[in-house]
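Notes to self after the Tuesday call (sharing in case useful).
The group wants a holo model before anyone commits to mutagenesis around the pocket. I volunteered. Ligand is EPZ. Logging inputs and output together so the record is complete.
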Amino acid sequence: MDRIHIQGGRPLSGNIPISGAKNAALPLMAASLLMDGPLVLTNAPDLADIATMGALLRQHGLAVDHDKTARTITMSGAATSLEAPYDLVRKMRASVLVLGPLVARFGQARVSLPGGCAIGTRPVDLHLKGLEALGATISLDGGYITATAPKGLVGAKIIFPQVSVGATENLLMAACLAKGTTTLVNAAREPEIADLCACLSAMGAVISGAGTDRITVEGGAPLHAATHAIVPDRIETGTYAIAAAITGGTVLLEGARLEHLGAVARILREAGVEVAEEGGGLRVSRLNGLHGADVMTEPFPGFATDMQAQFMSLMAVAEGASMVTETIFENRFMHVPELTRMGARITIHGASAIVRGVPMLSGAPVMATDLRASVSLILAGLAARGETVVSRVYHLDRGYEHVERKLAAVGAAIERQRG
Ligand code: EPZ
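Result:
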């Protein structure tokens, strides 16, 4: 298995291009099931999760062409298989996003239940209750969800008891083909949802309230071919912002959007990091000391749970103490024991971690169990004295495009050892 070797202590300097967002691309690809297409997605990142969604759509019967040079993914054709098998769904939970489009278009779908994962139990009850509200009949059997709506879905008002990105996306897509008006109340406001709304609108859907917590869809009309540019990845943006900050460097994050960072930009500034819009991107630098800052993860525009591990690495070398509270997932502190092995002083109390900054981390062999935890160890390695070796790199490849190339290009001593 590949490993990443890092020699810490070099301030980063230069430009990093921000890729298209993984978490926008996955639902956008699933949206291709709503029509025969083609749906052309530009600014497509080259990531393992994108390949997995491509494989899932291919096994549903679609033609999927990922042109890595042109950075486009093109999906066309109608689904011939309405089943998403366990083998693919267990690899990537976002596979459940095919459920809404399939049942809305074909009146039937069978999708493996995703089950828990490293960061928590992650149920899909809100997806299922929402589809029931649109008239689908749901049954669970043999580890699979079966959804049927032989006469098609019908618009409804759905009030989410809790904000869910995936449930909002699944129901938004289903609502486009449901007859009549669907209103999603307490919908997720993450930029990936507004991006999905923009793509669905380009496909002919009638949607209002995109980007707000109340989205209305006038559904029922057939959708058509479209081309859509995937929004830049706000989590990759935040991650490289912290790479600049933790090394005391300056980087220009090309294509990054300040408004998509939400509370992350405010908290970074509070901690002593400069974040400024420049030339269609963001300049991030840290010239003086870092101070501890408290964060609590929340749905957008609050502080993103997908930035929590990276922020903890930064706080590990800040002056003073910080409290990091995770409210979205129940088991998202797996990076803590690894950071502790690098000399960080962190103690966990329930859903909160108290981080007492140390002047310097020390390199160590480390491994992690999920995407964001892995990258937090890379960030810690960039700041640490000596060598850090990160194993289980396949987690990183799910969501960070060419991470070692991007960091090496701005001066990091980082390389991948294949094996
Ligand atoms: C999306 O996951 C992202 N994944 C996650 O990114 C991200 O951490 C998460 O949103 C929160 O921002 C993709 O976009 C592909 P949720 P999702 O439904 O949609 C509970 C990464 O590292 N919930 O908003 O699965 C759930 O357990 C990944 O890139 C229910 O209880 O997240 C969680 O506590 C990891 N029932 C909370 O809601 C449901 O039916 C929010 O989850 C659905 C969710």
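Two things stood out.
The longest strand covers residues 180-185.
The CA atoms of residues 197 and 210 lie 6 Å apart.
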